[in-house]
Amino acid sequence: MNEASPDEVEAALRRAMDGGDDSLVEFFATLLRGHVVILARPGRKKRPAEPPIVLQFFTIDGEDHIPIYTSPAKVAATRAAHPGMIDGSPLMTIDPRGLFSMTWGRHFILNPHSDDSVDFPPGQIDRLMDAVDGTFTMMRVGSADDVPPSVVEKITRWLDQVPGVRAAHLGWRYYPSQGRKTIMVVILDDPGDLPAATLDFPPGSALEQAVQIEILAPGPDGMNLLEDVPPFYVRP
């Protein structure tokens, strides 16, 4: 596998910022073929011949972020934004996969203080690695803000007629192999008492023909894929 240069990584990053989720996966695959630059601080008990291995963190809104950079040149933006803050912090160029494997679930920020800065909330790096490696389950979800209000109104009227519905969330999920798909998670008073077929749009109805939405219910463990998306429907 050819090693990706900083120029290649940054070109893929620009495409990701202009594109969608597929471009983000492409960028991350390119990043994993290259190197990242990190800020380090000397370990308290390190020997003179040992490199500094303790990561430098930024605290943003009370949460620790690990800053990483696509090239040493990108660190200049941080130095300009916060003069003196990282003076004395050695730069280290390391393998990104090794770094991410050692820092599972942490919050990363790529190229902080630059125009091409990207925030990776906890868990997203891990899902991106799974996507690149083909071991991916589900990558991202979000609010379906592009569903027309008229469609939302029709769905609301339909939900009013379905017994046992407590609330519903409308959003999307993204799989690298399938792209983005609109989904609706319906919260039921008692899932065991309602046949799954009841949650299908009426066959042949205008709603079924006009809306390509997959309807889901929380799993047996109560997991709701859209738990972070406010419900659009709540039965009084």
Please tell me how large the radius of gyration is.
23 Å
Instruction: Give me the strand/helix succession.
Output: HHEEEEHEHEEHEHEEHEE
Tell me the number of structural domains: 2
Mean pLDDT: 75
Helical run tally = 7
Estimated share of beta-strand residues: 15-25%
CATH topology of the largest domain: Trna Endonuclease, Chain: A, domain 1
CATH class of the largest domain: Alpha Beta
Question: Any guess at the CATH architecture of the largest domain?
Answer: 3-Layer(aba) Sandwich
Protein name: SseB family protein
Domain SseB protein N-terminal: 10-125
Task: Describe this entry's structure for a reader.
This is SseB family protein. With about 240 residues, this protein is of the alpha+beta class. It has two domains: about 5-135, Trna Endonuclease, Chain: A, domain 1 (3-Layer(aba) Sandwich); about 140-235, GMP Synthetase, Chain A, domain 3 (2-Layer Sandwich), CATH 3.30.300. The protein contains seven helices and twelve strands. It has helices at about 5-20, 20-30, 75-80, 95-100, 125-135, 150-160, 205-210; strands at about 35-40, 55, 60, 65-70, 90-95, 110, 120, 140-145, 165-175, 180-190, 215, 235. The N and C termini lie far apart (about 60 Å). The model is unreliable at about 45-55 (pLDDT under 50).
